[in-house]
Amino acid sequence: MTLDSAGSLLKEYKVYVKYLILFSLAYLVKCVFEYLYNRSSILNNVADSSAPNVIESGDKADSPLFDNSDKTVVEESQGDYFYNKYLTDTESEKNIHIPFSLPRFEVDEMKTRARQFYEVVNTRRSCRFFSPDPVPRDVLEHCILAAGTSPSGAHTEPWQFVVVYNKEDREIIREIVEDEEKVNYERRMGKKWLQDLAKIKTTFVKEYISEADCIILVFKEPFHYKDNVKHNNWYYEASVSISVGILLCALNNVGLVTVTSTPMNCGPAIRRLLGRPDHEKLAFLLPVGYPATSATVPALKRKTIDQISLMSSDEESKLISQLTKEYGRVHTISTRQLKEELSNFGLDTRGTVLVLQKRLKEHYRRVQSSVHPQIAIWHRKNPHSHYAIIDFEATCDENLPETDFMHEIIEVPVVLVSAATAEIIDIFHEYVKPKMCPVLSPFCKKLTGINQTVINQSRSFVEVWKDLETWIEEKRNLSETGINSENEVIKSLCFVTDGPWDFKKFLAKESRYNNMDFPSMCVQFCNLRRRFCNFYGVKRVNIQGMLKNLGQEFDGTPHSGISDSRNIANIVCTMVRDGAVLDNNEVVDINSIYTA
User: Fold this and answer.
1) Distance in angstroms (rounded) separating the CA atoms of residues 352 and 361
2) Of the residues 180, 391, 430, 578, which is catalytic?
């Protein structure tokens, strides 16, 4: 390029060059001012030893606690937690604490009172059939007063109990609710949700709204105004829920019934009807009254004390405290020390720091569990005797959109792992001839390593899947005598996949293509990718990422179904040895398969 041509080019684009220089200068000035501002803030904090450290206001880890005002970090040396400082800006009466005590009963009386209270609340049931008989208003007022005794975040009392007696208003509210509920039942709710609701015979028709003597609409307040200043209500969701729980007990105590209704998408319309402020959000709709003489409730059983609670003795609490301290120590030692301790215990020393820490903590838990078998919380047993690791390969084409391509399974590899020994004990492996597009694309052959000759000699998916079911059934029916590492009885089988796609996408499509029922043994399965990140506390990664975290290398050819399945099986074996409990964490919506 000559100098003349370069000069003419520069003249042609001089406007753009000018703007580029201006923008660059503006950005540089911005960076300088930000640096000077941050530096001055830091120096001010250092100079003033009494000034608290400022936490970034963008920290919204707990959204109900988000506050635009300055955050402070409390140091142990400050003792009073700043409350003296902040209370000086509030009304003096708010600073007063008064003596508090409750009567201390004899142990026998405590037991009697506890039993009597349980016997009363145990009669509480959700009732949908009401008598029109009127409820004494003063009785209802005292029940609501009882609900108002609920604890709330910073005593903000973020609730409003709106009682509606007027029949016409309740008819309008019923119409609003039923219109929305009809849409919920027909379009928004999944099949599983509807199946669970069918057990208690509930539909979008809500007669109880108009049949009961009155309804209580419980509104939650995320914030409130005082002297035209907005104030947040902390933990308002939990506070309102607790107050409603107390209200249910109070109503039951006086012989009244209700049902906890949470109508979706109805809040704004009902709020406008009743003239409530915009900041109030409808949380619950409670019809209140006497049960109808013909009322019925589902024959349900409540969980036992062992199913809903875990109580530790003083000795168990001490042991748990010791283990907690040991867990804390694990997080303070170096990687070299982690590996030394693991090596001393004969454990695997490969993996990232997070994996090594989890492995060592699980070892301490298992040791304590064996020494103190009475502490149930330490006992973690895999609920399945075997794991069937499966990673399908399917047809694909790089030149066609993923959303429009009709994937067909071409490889069915299953690697069987024993939960007892954490070892691979058997393998099922078959190739499949596609039904609709039997010729593989060049891209598919290159990606999977499967050639056309193998596909041409293979059988249909229906035939191969039938052989797999037979293979599994034979292992279920093996004699339980003479069990060894190569011949174990399958008592409980859990399918494991790398993500949800193998079953929810490929197997679902294959079932629809072949007009076959979705295999019942695959409706629930374990998504290993999700379980891995939850167990080790790492980011969700693919097969290669999981192996890297464990300090292992991929063995075989990527995108080969049998190679992928073997490597996933190796990950499963490592996790089982490290103490992970692998169970179903995904469910296939069978109804959506045939309507898609």
Assistant:
1) 14
2) 391
Q: Strand, coil or helix: what is 41?
A: helix
pLDDT in tens, 193-229: 788 888 888 888 999 999 999 999 999 999 988 888 8
- Through-space distance between the first and last CA atoms of the chain, rounded to whole angstroms: 61
H or E, element range at 416 = strand 409-418
Contact 559/447 with Cβ under 8 angstroms?
yes
Q: Is 589 a catalytic residue?
A: no
pLDDT class for 246, splitting at 50, 70, 90? very high
Could you tell me the two tokens for 364? 């301490």
For 493-524, the pLDDT digits (tens) are 999 999 999 999 999 999 989 988 899 899 99
Q: Which among 178, 221, 341, 393 is annotated as catalytic?
A: 393
The residue annotated as part of the active site, out of 224, 279, 372, 559, is: 559
Q: What is the DSSP letter of 202?
A: -
* Given the residues 180, 341, 510, 564, the one annotated as active site: 564
Mark whether 97 is an active-site residue.
no
Rounded to the nearest 5 percent, the helix, strand and coil shares of the chain are 45, 15, 40
Residue 590, pLDDT above cutoff 80: no
Residue 393 catalytic?
yes
> How sure is the predictor about 467, in pLDDT bands with cuts at 50, 70 and 90?
very high
Check if the beta carbon of residue 348 is closer than 8 Å to that of residue 342: yes
Place of tokens 């959506």: 592
Strands 493-497 and 586-587: unpaired
Tokens of 224: 């409130």
Rounded alpha-carbon distances, angstroms, from residue 370 to 288, 308, 363, 379: 53, 24, 11, 9
* The CA-based dihedral angle spanning residues 226, 232, 236, 239, taken in that order and rounded to the nearest 10 degrees: -60
Q: Which of 181, 430, 502, 578 is catalytic?
A: 502
β-pair partners for 417: 387, 424
pLDDT for position 60: 36
CB 284 within 8 A of CB 153: no
Closest CA to 71 of 156, 79, 80, 62: 62
32-46, 72-86, 150-164, range with greatest mean pLDDT: 150-164
What is the identity of the amino acid at 225?
A: Y
Give dist(CA 517, CA 465) in Å, integer. 12
